[in-house]
Amino acid sequence: MVISQCVIQYGFQATDAHETSEALNYLQNFGQFDLLLVDMKMPGMNGVEFIREVRKMSKYRTTPIIMISSESSADDINSALEAGADDYLVKPFSKDSLLTKLEMLDS
User: Fold this and answer.
1) Which of 11, 16, 46, 67 has the maximal Cβ count within 10 Å?
2) Under CATH, which number does the domain 43-107 receive?
3) Digit-coded pLDDT (tens) for 28-82
4) Distance between CA 82 and CA 18 in Å, rounded?
C-alpha cells in the first residue's frame, strides 16, 4: 500500500498483486503496464524467477522493472539485474529514494 501510494503521487496508476500467478495474469490479460515494482520474496516464485517470466513476454521486454528486497548482498543484486531488472531498491527505503529511482528511469 505504501509503495502504491508513492507511485500514484509520482503520476503512475498502481495495481497490486499478492502472488506471482495473479501478477502474471494481470500482465498477460490487462493492458500494458509502464513500470513493474517486484518484491524478491513473493508467493509462487521468487522475484528473479518472476522477472525472467516477465521478460519472456514481448510486450514487457523493455518495460522498466525495479526489484525491491530486504536482501542487499552483491549476489542478490546481480541475480536481479541479470534476470532483467533495471534497478534494485533495498528495504527499508524512504519515499524519496523510491521517487529518485522512478525519476532516473523516467529520464
Assistant:
1) 67
2) 3.40.50.2300
3) 998 888 899 999 998 999 999 999 999 999 999 999 999 999 999 999 999 999 9
4) 24
